[in-house]
Write a structure and sequence with these properties.
Length: 366
Amino acid sequence: MPVFACAGCGAVITSAVSQVALPVHAHQKYGHELLPALLEPGTYAVDPDPSGPPWRPWEEVGVEEAEARGVYAPVHALSYGPPGAVAVAPGDVHGTVLIPERCDGYCLGLDGRDGPNLACAQCGCAVATRIDDCSYWQVVWLDPRAVRLISADEPACRVLSWEALREEQPGTPPVEPIGAWSPVWEAAVAEALAHLLAVSDGARVVVPDGSVADAFRPTLDALLPSEPPVKSLALAGPSLSATVADIALVPRHPQTGEAWPYGAGAAVPLAADVWMYLAFNDNRRLLPASGGLPDDVYRDDPPPLLPFGPFRPDWEVFLSTLARLPEVRQPWLRAIYDHVKEHRDSRPFWWCLPNMAEKGSYRCEQ
Ligand SMILES: [Zn+2]
């Protein structure tokens, strides 16, 4: 598998890594806790968009230049950092040293605000930015101008088939052990919602009762018209029977980033780990198939995890995704974008989404 090396002196600065798709939550900010590593050990992902400093405010950039850079609605600021930053797990980086004067952060760690904060230990060139402050996924972003990929002779990691994916990478549960909604879910659903609005053409989108409705319906109902015309939404993907819905919610492969091939018709990709859970988890608890355990063991089993609040799609991920879809230039969708942007603390991104794990148990704040 390939490694990354300092472009200045050639020193190898990562373990052997194989490429995966950039996770939807790569730039998410969540809560005020230390988050885990963004990527699994032994993997890397490339962000095709410009990222990191310097930043230029929207007013200074202007509509025309912003659109040329793939941003179609007002954002606070655009990155003029290099495109192609490479994310790796912090534990896969070695042979680097911190640059003390660039180790600023908001709270518990580094947030990369000053640009690259890791230098090659051999030659001193700034090569990467480590981010491990609270609210951020822990990651090292290799500067694409300062590193190069060295392909080793060994074969790259195999790409899992969709069927193997279901076996080897089962879905991510929606609730964290502390009772908070999974940040992965909040980001994945928010990203899919932005794409879903874009393909809805402004029509009402209806979702059959079930877990997909629990995650998507409140936001769709809040943002789209309540009257006809109507489009239907349903899961489609590996191991599911064919759907006849107008819009299919299909899995996006975590290694290749490709959406499951749906064929004709509108398809909206959803991060595979969340899609797998929606498609195949029925919330039934596993019981031993044979033999038996003392009653005490059953009583000691932890109850199913329940969230302590309503589900909220990630506001920033939703807006960031929508701003980068050319469809947002349509007046009806731009109006939705502006409304959500100006009303962060209101429905549907704050109050009033039902408790997915215990439907009907949550009283809406009107
Ligand atoms: Zn070097």
